[in-house]
Design a protein that fits this description.
The structure is a homodimer.
Chain A (H helix, E strand, L loop, with lengths): L1 E7 L29 H9 L8 E5 L1 H10 L8 E3 L6 H15 L8 E7 L3 E3 L1 H18 L2 E6 L10 E4 L9 E7 L4 H10 L2 E11 H11 L2 H15 L10 H8 L6 H6 L5 E5 L3 E3 L7 H4 L8 E3 L2 E4 L5 E4 L5 E5 L4 E5 L3 E6 L6 H10 L7
Parallel strand pairs in A: 1-2, 1-4, 2-3, 6-10, 12-14, 13-15, 14-16
Antiparallel strand pairs in A: 4-9, 5-11, 6-9, 7-8, 7-9, 8-10, 16-17
Amino acid sequence: MQRTCVIMAGGSGERFWPVSRKAYPKQLLALTDSGKTMIAEAIERISPLISYRDIFIVTSEILLAPIRAALPEFPPENIIAEPAKRNTAPCLALAAAIISARYTEIALQDISMAVLTADHAVAPAEEFRKTVDIALHYAEKAGRLTTIGIVPTRPETGYGYIETASKTEVNTPAEVIRFCEKPDIVTARRFLESGNFYWNSGMFFWRLDVFIDEITVAMPLYSEKIAELTQAYSKSNKMALEASEPSARECFAAFPDISIDYGLMERSRKTSVVPAGFSWDDVGSWDALDRLRVADKSGNIIEGNSVAIDNKHSIIINKSSDMTAAVIGTENIAVIVTDDAVLVCPKDKVQDVKKAVAALREKGEEKYL
Amino acid sequence: MQRTCVIMAGGSGERFWPVSRKAYPKQLLALTDSGKTMIAEAIERISPLISYRDIFIVTSEILLAPIRAALPEFPPENIIAEPAKRNTAPCLALAAAIISARYTEIALQDISMAVLTADHAVAPAEEFRKTVDIALHYAEKAGRLTTIGIVPTRPETGYGYIETASKTEVNTPAEVIRFCEKPDIVTARRFLESGNFYWNSGMFFWRLDVFIDEITVAMPLYSEKIAELTQAYSKSNKMALEASEPSARECFAAFPDISIDYGLMERSRKTSVVPAGFSWDDVGSWDALDRLRVADKSGNIIEGNSVAIDNKHSIIINKSSDMTAAVIGTENIAVIVTDDAVLVCPKDKVQDVKKAVAALREKGEEKYL
């Protein structure tokens, strides 16, 4: 079995504004205590199981150069730009086509694909690889669309959930009853108590033949499109995978904007889940730093040049070497400073950073985005 | 009677950091809705009563050039630098000497002096001039060290108080029983209820002969020192009042560091107070903007380029044209942004800005001060 890995790294990460920018999104930030970018961590984490040669990073055109620059040791031809901005279903169809074109001598049923994310926090790495190995092995052997479910630790309303028939041991595949959209808090509490609900990690494992068969059942257009894209990328030399093939661009742009969860996973009857033996965080907004970093004795997370006096449970990040930040007497506040922007927001409102980004866009202040 | 005015403008105004800086303190800021600097407002306010020629601004050496630049129409030779950093008693002794030297043909008992501040908010100006005129006239006629007392409107613990024998009508001189230092909140409430306590405005009115006599009774050193300084400044040409006279520098440096309240007013038995017919604010810290400016309908005071979403009763000042500030969901917070610094602080802790300034000094980050 030829194992491959696809890392989706096209996200724009507006929730980490003002540090994240259009050409410098979350996956390129060092958000954990390791000091490494999220995407470097993601590749380092999987590479003992799947080597660089067989890992494909799919990103947007604007991020192609920054990601290549951030990963100097990674083969540049394996970092691929989507020819247009689309959701995860077209992205993974494109990945399937590119992999089909790259491994021409190997039959589709002998190629498996691990779909991972570039901007989530995972620990410990060994336990992550153990679960991935089990999920991949199960997907290869049983021919199932397999996902990793995270054992929930709080009634989170920001994640999708996966239901199984009964509580399942970690690292043990189980059939999926249904995928549930983000619940309200009452439902989330019920999910947490039930024991047979898992957070949808956004990681998927399948054989190429099973993926193409199942996505074609769900969305008949895909069969023909994937064949067309495979054809287009077969003609390209490796570096041209960047999207220079006009036929590929046109073909890809015709995909409707649909997520892999909604377009494939929720519709297929061949879905399984492996409960994770590791801890996971989607690093969705600034308050995630509270879970990812070690706070000082007052509960503050402080980075960069600042004068912080009498604060409690605050996040004070100064990314500028020119600016100084003085933060005094705050509680549960996030203060983020860059060379050209300042964000001040209570920690429980950091989701609203997107509103600020939208407002700046509306004011025509693109230079800050 | 030759009326003169002395405006003390040597303050460093650390409490308005990061906008106020060593060479750009509070008196040079435009803090009210008028858009004018505090010192320009102070001069404009008094000039219908005392013309520019007879107004003397005493400041520090570092502020001499910035203040001259901020007041292009004001006679530069009337803006004088103290030869060393000292408290208000030496400052006013110096002013007395300079005025004695300037008006050589006029006897000391025929010169009166109105001592005003450069960085307080006062309104309305006509009422201010009315009270000043009454206080000056009383000081001239009765030969008393006269001050203006502000009718208190809240149990303020940040101001000194002046006690009179009984409740007094505004614009009516009364004898001072005692000067009280900043009270605790219980005492401040009692002062407010009593009706015969006034805030010490820091404005003083006296004839030059009475001032020199009384300060010599309180501090015998002063008589000789003022004579020496008068001598030194008599020899100087007008522009040399900047402090180029070595003998003046040496003489001035020998003054102990003492305030006019403590050194003279609290010790003299010839003190009177005129309750003010105007409203007054010492503009002591960022939260004063709540009293000096008109807030928006959510109670926010917002200035400069910012994205402010869902804030209540916050002060958001962005003085930089390069930085953008996004402030979301805050309540009662002050966020101040300049080209090189950010301050974030709850409004009820803005007094602690001095702690941040001290911390920066301690870290050797003078460039931010």
